[in-house]
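Interim report, section 4.2 (structural modelling).
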Amino acid sequence: MNDTAGPRRRVDVGRVAHRVAVALLVVYLVVPFLWMVVYSVYPSENLRSSPMSFAPTDLTLAKYGELFGDSGFVRSMTNSVVVGVATTVICMLLGSLAAYSISRFRFRGSQTLLLAMMTVQAIPAIVLAVPLFVLMRDFGLYDSLTGLVLTYAAFILPLVIWMMVSFFDSIPVNLERAARIDGCSHLGVLRRVVIPLSGPGFAATAIFAFITAWSDFFLAKILTGPNAETLPVRTAAFQGLFATDYTAAATAGVITALPVLALALVAQRWIVQGITEGAVKG
Amino acid sequence: MTSADITFDNVSKRYGAKDTEPAVKALSYTIEGGHFVSLLGPSGCGKSTTLNMIAGLEGVTEGSISIGGRPVQDVEPHKRDLAFVFQDYALYPHLDVYDNIAFGLRMRKMDRAELDQRVRDAAERLEITSQLGKRPRALSGGQRQRVALARAIARRPAVLLFDEPLSNLDALLRDRTREELKVLHAEVGATTVYVTHDQEEAMSLSDEIAVMSKGRLEQFGTPGEIYERPATEFVASFVGKPQMNLQTVTTTGGGLRIADGWEITHPHTLGEGRTVRLGLRPSECSVRRASDGGGLGRVRVTEPLGSHTDIALDTAVGAFRVRVPGFTDLRAGDPVDVTVDGATRHLFDAETGARLPDPVAVGV
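Predicted structure of the assembly:
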């Protein structure tokens, strides 16, 4: 276009650069994942031959079938689901009640408490690994789902409280006062007004809690043996000392990643909705 | 609908420890059943705190509040038989208009037929029947206000509480809603307590006004009493537009000396040489052009408002306001004389601000 003015063109250049940067970032993040998907659905010979063969006729879900038939793998999957769900339920139950009282009731030291919880988050898990291991072993919780759930809850709860406090803070206090005059008890206000209104925030936080517990490798590796092994630990085990079953590792990786991917997509929608609802409050 | 008296007996509210300054100090007065009473005062004067204490949203530190003869300090908000209209309306965003109005009725386990009847009655009265299926988000400010009112009256409470309900509306809508509120109150007959910082709103709506300042009740009386016989200098300065002229003056034998060469007659009984505060309503004063170089002051600015014109003067005692009917041909800088012959002299103690006793006949 001839009539495009100089400054406008510069803006366009900036925009193009921005898009290129975003595209590169997406490629950087997505390609390894796609490569893993490709690895899981082609026989390894196809990928080791030169040139690689991607014939559609060679596509196979054999490895998926094999893994779902493997009782050890299925057990690690069940473990992950149990640990993820249990951690989420505990964190949301305790976390939302704690967050509500911090957000709504005046008491001495509430802000200090909130800060203290964040400070704990600043300690890296690796520092705590050995003491945690000793603790769990002494309490007889090593290699147990209970031990793992308790550990995750301790790590995730502060984050859940922080997120829920900010969601509760965005709900106008007068709504709760109106509900109290309309006839709700404190708990009734929570059930009929606060929770329905913090729905998107509640869902987003729950999904965050689940994803964090589901995808943890480090703590699970340290605190579990063959009994309470979770999916990430099991997946890593396909990398052997002398041989690595790449197809199995890739397949397990895809299986581990899919729920996270699905939940992240849902959470993104919830979070966006949560933000816009806060913007037009009342 | 029933109505109930509301009685304050030495009510105080403190937010901090015992030695902190209370937000509300020793209130004692009675709001008669069915009356419309405004709590008027500047922000931070304790009027909203008082309203919240009636509602039970905040506790009472000392004293007691009774509604319909029953002390309510230990009664939950929803058992006090009252409804509350909030400044930001506080409509439940996740419920449609119908459910917003029905919420309080459902909580009281009302049967469905009666509930439906009540919701539709309230909606009809406030002309929002066509909005019943909408969420609050889809409504304009004025409509939200009506939903909030409908929610309050659907419950048919003995007491209606309003916390600055008109302050979020634009000027035109505010005037209209004010009128409707008055009609609504006459229809439903509930005892109404209305918090506002707008003295015009308070004057036009109320049977009685409680003027508050710094947590204290300054005066409780009808709009006429408040305007014509303000009990304190604060009330005198807060009520009335434009603001009353308040000057420090000295008593003389038969009157008051405002400044050198500016004395007015007033048959007071205060003795000579006493310093007091004098209040004069701008609308009761008048001005006339003085000869060049003479006069008590000069015109600083004129504000023609149609039915009348407000004139601000610079005088020996500082700013002085006069309101004259119609328009004026005075211009900024013109020298003028001020006449206060017909004006009521409101006298206040210079220290305490309390109204000083009026002479038997107000002098001219």
